[in-house]
Design brief:
The chain is of the alpha/beta class and 281 residues long. It has two domains: 197 residues, Spore Coat Polysaccharide Biosynthesis Protein SpsA, Chain A (Alpha-Beta Complex); 64 residues. 41% of the residues lie in helices and 17% in strands. Strands 1, 2, 3, 4, 5, 6, 7, 8 and 9 form a nine-stranded mixed sheet that branches. α7 runs parallel beside α9 and α8 runs antiparallel to α9. The radius of gyration is 19 Å and the shape is globular. The two termini are 24 Å apart.
Length: 281
């Protein structure tokens, strides 16, 4: 059985669309666990609507954080495999059946697919054109947490580090951290471009205050990741690239300077400000 764990906050319509796409799946041996960070009653009509369509568990929590919510959901899961789609994603009808088939066929610990936008182009990241196993020297473009299918017993040896992720100061990189920790233990992680799901692209407007705030928190997470795993070269490289790009933008495209200055500020903030409550669960 598959346990589909969905942390959600402030995305009622998107969550409903995701649940509709789950209900249309070819695969039918699953449960859905909604980890609700909204005010009480916010999702009541959606819970009532889908409660009789499939096995559904609704959990209310009051500590914000996507990684923390996923960990809470995993402790409530009964499935042999865990899947953590974002609440603004949608599945193609074959997404789950293909993922479970691939995971079982390869006998690996975890697999990742890819996300696409409505036009079918890569979204969130630029994905590798080649299927294959991830290694510590070759994993870029081969993972996004929303596409992860992982054996439950393996996940519970690691969990997400809940100091990372949306809703925390270090607002991203929880999947990156998990992948690195698993690869260092020689876990078998496979990426295939054949498993697809819909996810909108993140950056829509470089002048939008929400986008500017997001890049700040995401880059705090990036710096936190680099320090945690001693990736100094990766950290310094990003600082240099953003700094040089800011100089270019100040001359040729000043409308984007605020966004990339926020990115640079986020990196330095993630280096300087350390969270004393860092943990893995």
């Amino acid at each position: 059985m598959l346990s589909i764990i969905i942390p959600t906050l402030g995305r009622k319509k998107q969550l409903e669309d995701l649940l509709i796409s789950i209900d249309k799946q070819e695969y039918n041996d699953y449960e859905v666990i909604i980890v609700d960070q909204n005010p009480p009653g916010y999702l009541e009509d959606i819970i009532v609507k889908f409660n009789n369509k499939f096995r559904l568990k609704h959990i209310m929590i009051y500590q914000k954080g996507a990684a923390h919510s996923r960990n809470i959901g995993s402790d409530e899961a009964r499935g042999d495999i865990l899947f953590f789609p974002d609440d603004d994603s949608k599945l193609f009808k074959e997404t789950i059946s293909l993922a479970v088939e691939t995971l079982n066929k390869l006998g690996c610990d975890c697999i990742f697919g890819k996300t696409v936008d409505e036009s079918g182009q890569d979204s969130v990241v630029n994905y590798s054109a080649t299927n294959g196993y991830l290694t510590l020297s070759d994993y870029e473009g081969k993972f996004v947490e929303a596409t992860m299918f992982i054996k439950t017993d393996i996940f519970k040896q690691y969990y997400y580090d809940s100091s990372f992720g949306v809703g925390t100061f270090y607002g991203a990189e929880e999947a990156h951290d998990l992948v690195i920790r698993m690869l260092r233990d020689n876990r078998k992680i496979y990426y295939t471009k054949n498993i697809k799901m819909y996810h909108p692209n993140k950056i829509l407007n470089y002048n939008d205050p929400q986008e500017i705030k997001r890049v700040f928190t995401y880059r705090c997470g990036f710096a936190h990741l680099c320090i945690k795993h001693n990736m100094k070269f990766k950290l310094i490289k990003r600082i240099i690239l953003v700094s040089l790009y800011l100089i270019f933008l100040s001359v040729f495209n000043r409308k984007k300077t605020r966004y990339y200055f926020s990115e640079l500020l986020g990196i330095f903030s993630g280096i300087v400000i350390r969270n004393n409550n860092e943990n893995h669960k």
